[in-house]
Amino acid sequence: MGMFQAWSGWRRYRKLSPDWRNIVMYSESGQDWHHFEPLIEALNDDLKKKTTYVTSDDADPGLRREHPLFKAIYIPEGFFLTLHFNMQKADVVVLTMMDLGNLQLKKSINSVHYVYLFHSLGSTHMVDHANSYDAYDSLFCAGPHHVAELRKRELIADLPGRNLFEYGHPRLEQLLEKSASYRDQADGEEHSSATLPTVLIAPTWGEDSIFNTCGEELTELLLDAGFRVIVRPHYHTLLLVPEVINRSQVKFASHAGFEYEGHMGESRTLLRSDVLICDWSAMAIEYALGLEKPVLFIDLPRRVRNPDWQDLEIEPLEVSFREWAGCVVPLQNLQDIPQEITNLLEAKHGYRKKIQELRVQMVFNIGCSVELGAREIARLADQQAVH
What we know:
By secondary structure, the protein is α/β, with parallel strands linked by helices.
């Protein structure tokens, strides 16, 4: 059945007319739909541009979207997806997938303009491989740090200058809007949370991440201290070590203060929380800038996939941001975390002012990124179509 579905999706794409292959988006997982959806809506509704959306996730919400200028096609991972990438005909392909050309999915033998859509505010050169972004023709940068890092990479690796578009981060804008609305409607909840704060644990994934090293111990410590605790693992953690999360779910399921959230794209748990506990996830930057709430970092080993990251001579934003976003607690001092959370919440008003000043310096086009991004995609597609 899977092979037939893959063949059907591949065949359906190949039958598309050129106008439906002018703007194509590809998503590995439905978890990224919230990054694509605003751009697709702007392209379809505001610019009247046809958009084809290819996904490898049969649960992707994009497969259920209905619009006369929108087509969604399912091609699961495997032979036909690899063939699709190798032979694809398109003017512009927009992806949130890193490492194009480095793994099984290669650039097409045909002339395609590839656009990388940053779905994180984190830096490019420590957590990711040195060449993770080398294959893209345009990169939609979230902030000045992305531009500086990518230009330095071009210089070091002798790459041609790419189109580094000053895009922004729509997810941050969504959080700002939802946060303002939530504060207006939930003053009572805010007061109650002062006596019973809600802690969100949402770290990165990997061997040295929170859930792999101290997640169960941390959750128990916080619950025993009287906090409400929301556990929200990265979807890669659920894929790679589901038993780690399942064990915590079983252990704490009956505790009134425990809550589990398995979907990374939702916002409700972020809004309801008072403080985030994180490690090296760039989600901490989004949380702090979007919600103006503090972050407590557990000082676990850095997540490094590029051993030569220091060649750029640029400090990753994940490192420098820790100094501004809250506090850092060594792993051996987990018992200090309840008091550190109390300290952070007592200082939250001064913290908000500092974050507001930082936000406009660190992120492009707050309030209008989607409109500008859709126009740039349309421009690139029109330009590519005449070649």
